[in-house]
Amino acid sequence: MTKPENETALLTIPEAAKELRCSYNTVARLIARGALPSTDIAPPGSKRSRTRVPRDGLHAYIAARTTPAKPARRRTT
């Protein structure tokens, strides 16, 4: 399976937040506590962080927290 050209391997924090439909701060907290993998692509010695979230890591985070649907209860009449 090939990925579309516009699908990047690394997401910015705002892009990850958009996919999760949550805030920037929520994604930053998930990264800070180690629940969501991230990488800093800033060059060594840089004063500013350039944090990115691997798309595969984001999908793994979602999959780990997804629960299967419960079967519907049958009504008895």
Written overview of the protein:
This is Helix-turn-helix domain-containing protein. GO terms for molecular function: DNA binding. Residues 10-65 form the Helix-turn-helix domain. The protein has helices at residues 13-20, 24-32, 55-64, and strands spanning 10-11, 39-40, 51-54. The chain has 77 residues and is an alpha+beta fold. It has one domain. Strands 1-3-2 form a 3-stranded antiparallel β-sheet. α1 (13-20) packs across α2 (24-32). The longest helix is centred in the C-terminal third of the chain and has 10 residues, at 55-64. The relative contact order is 0.19. The model has no long low-confidence stretch (mean pLDDT 90).
Which range best describes the helical content: under 10%, 10-25%, 25-40%, 40-55%, 55-70% or over 70%?
Answer: 25-40%
Instruction: Provide the spatial order of strands within the biggest beta sheet.
Output: 1-3-2
Largest sheet: 3 strands, antiparallel
Question: How far is it from the N-terminal to the C-terminal residue, by CA?
Answer: 48 Å
How much of the polypeptide forms β-strand, as a percent range? 5-15%
**Strand/helix succession:** EHHEEH
What does this entry show, briefly?
The chain has helices at residues 13-20, 24-32, 55-64, and strands at residues 10-11, 39-40, 51-54.
Topology:
Elements: E1 10-11, H1 13-20, H2 24-32, E2 39-40, E3 51-54, H3 55-64
Antiparallel strand pairs: 1-3, 2-3
Helix pairs in contact: 1-2
InterPro entries: HTH_17, SinI_DNA-bd
GO molecular function: DNA binding
Region (Disordered): 34-56
Key phrases:
single chain; alpha+beta; three-stranded antiparallel sheet; elongated; SinI_DNA-bd
